[in-house]
Amino acid sequence: MTVYIEANKDAAAAILERGIEGPVVLLNLLRFRELADYSHAPQHAPEQPVSGAEAYKAYMAATRPMIERAGARLTFIGQPTEALIGPQDEKWDLMLLVEYPSIEAFFKHTGSADTRETIHHRQAALADSRLVPVVPGRPG
């Protein structure tokens, strides 16, 4: 099974090349590790082991002010249930919708030094994730 934690650079470049104008909502689907794994950044590990969910809470607490400085806002947070359509073995622990004023604002936020300084909590927390930019509008 392929695990996705970091953004795909080719996909990011393709999204920027589309020239999306206006607001964009980032759909986040998150699956947490039972225990957070700080092996990539042991200097940031808490003294006692924590769950992936607890590590993600630390990530959100650290990055939420930065998200707001980017002009973005968390518009929805919820716990997904079983899929009515889709793979029944694909389970998610948390779903977030974060609205940014533009796709450029999102990439500026995620590429900033202060945001990169908090990413270790996210990496420690997640067993798998999906991040899908969604633009307003309807087909046709």
- Sheet of most strands: 4 strands, antiparallel
DSSP strand tally: 4
Which sequence of strands runs across the widest sheet?
Answer: 2-3-1-4
Rg from alpha-carbon coordinates: 16 Å
Number of helices: 5
Low-confidence stretches are none
User: What best-fitting shape do the alpha-carbon axes yield?
Assistant: globular
**Quaternary state, please?**
single chain
User: Which CATH-level-2 architecture?
Assistant: 2-Layer Sandwich
Order of helices and strands: HEHEEHHHE
Measure the end-to-end span. Answer: 35 Å
Plain-language structure description:
By secondary structure, this protein is of the alpha+beta class. It has one domain (about 25-135): Alpha-Beta Plaits (2-Layer Sandwich), CATH 3.30.70.100. It contains five helices and four strands, in the order H-E-H-E-E-H-H-H-E. It has helices at about 10-15, 50-70, 105-110, 115, 120-125, and strands at about 25-30, 75-80, 95-100, 125-135. A four-stranded antiparallel beta sheet has the order 2-3-1-4. Helix 2 (about 50-70) packs antiparallel against helix 5 (about 120-125). The chain is globular.
What keywords describe this structure?
5 helices, alpha+beta, 22% strand, Alpha-Beta Plaits, 34% helix, 4 strands, 4-stranded antiparallel sheet, 140 residues
SSE order and pairing:
Blueprint: H1 9-17, E1 24-32, H2 52-69, E2 73-78, E3 94-100, H3 103-111, H4 113-116, H5 119-125, E4 126-134
Helix pairs in contact: 2-5
Compact summary:
The chain has a single domain, classed as Alpha-Beta Plaits. Helix content is 34%, strand content 22%. It has 5 helices and 4 strands; from the N terminus they run αβαββαααβ.
